[in-house]
From TrEMBL:
Keywords: DNA-binding, Metal-binding, Nickel, Transcription, Transcription regulation
Name this protein carries in UniProt: Putative nickel-responsive regulator
Taxonomic lineage of the native organism: Bacteria, Pseudomonadati, Verrucomicrobiota, Verrucomicrobiia, Verrucomicrobiales
GO-annotated biological processes: response to nickel cation
DNA-binding is among the record's keywords: yes
Summary of the function given for this chain in its UniProt record: Transcriptional regulator.
Record bears the keyword Transport: no
Domain (Transcription factor NikR nickel binding C-terminal) ranges: 100-175
Length: 193
């Protein structure tokens, strides 16, 4: 049997056959070469799954407007971010997943005993409170941002304890499914020595 240029090899998949030929066929058949390449990019090492959605026209127009205002470069990026947020919210409500996040507090630092009370709560939960940043603001106010990691229900309880302190003016609690890498403990360091 005589093969012509472009015939599919009978024992290989189309992708396997053409992926081997891409090095020299890409010049002659650029669209075919692009069509046979897997969906990956240097900025996105994970494989991607294409989906299709249908939206009511008013919702679509609002979505496009939001994308423009927020500076998204494409719809996939915007939808991916919204899905990540919804999934994080879902796991946050379930309460048993390991999550990382922030607790942001705005408080009056002149309130007697408040800083001590906030510190004691943080120290009580030292395994969940990773770090804390305090910024002095105008009018005797302080903004404190705590980086936390742990089970969602535990983190929610810590946030509630902190927000309930008299003198805390406002606060915000945000969680993410993406967690911090393992942090060394004294036991790990002593084993390495």
């Amino acid at each position: 049997m005589t093969r012509r240029h472009g015939d599919i090899h009978p024992t290989r998949s189309t992708y396997e056959y053409y992926s081997r030929r891409i090095s020299y066929d890409a010049v002659a058949f650029p669209l075919l070469a692009a069509a046979c390449m897997p969906e990956t990019s240097p900025s996105r090492p994970e494989p991607v799954q294409r989906i299709s959605i249908s939206l009511p026209v008013p919702l679509y127009k609002q979505f496009e407007e939001m994308m423009d205002e927020r500076g998204f470069t494409n719809r996939s990026q915007a939808i991916s971010e919204m899905m990540q947020q919804q999934i994080s919210d879902y796991y946050s409500l379930k309460g048993d997943h390991l999550m990382a996040g922030t607790i942001t507090l705005l408080y009056d630092h002149k309130k007697p005993g408040l800083k001590q009370q906030l510190s004691e709560i943080q120290y009580t939960h030292i395994t969940e409170v990773i770090s804390s940043l305090q910024v002095l603001l105008e009018n005797s106010h302080t903004m404190e941002v705590l980086l936390v990691q742990g089970r969602a229900k535990t983190l929610r309880r810590i946030a509630s304890e902190l927000l309930a302190c008299k003198g805390v003016l406002s606060g915000r609690f945000n969680l993410s499914r993406t967690i911090l890498p393992p942090i060394q403990s004294p036991e790990v360091e002593s084993e390495a020595a």
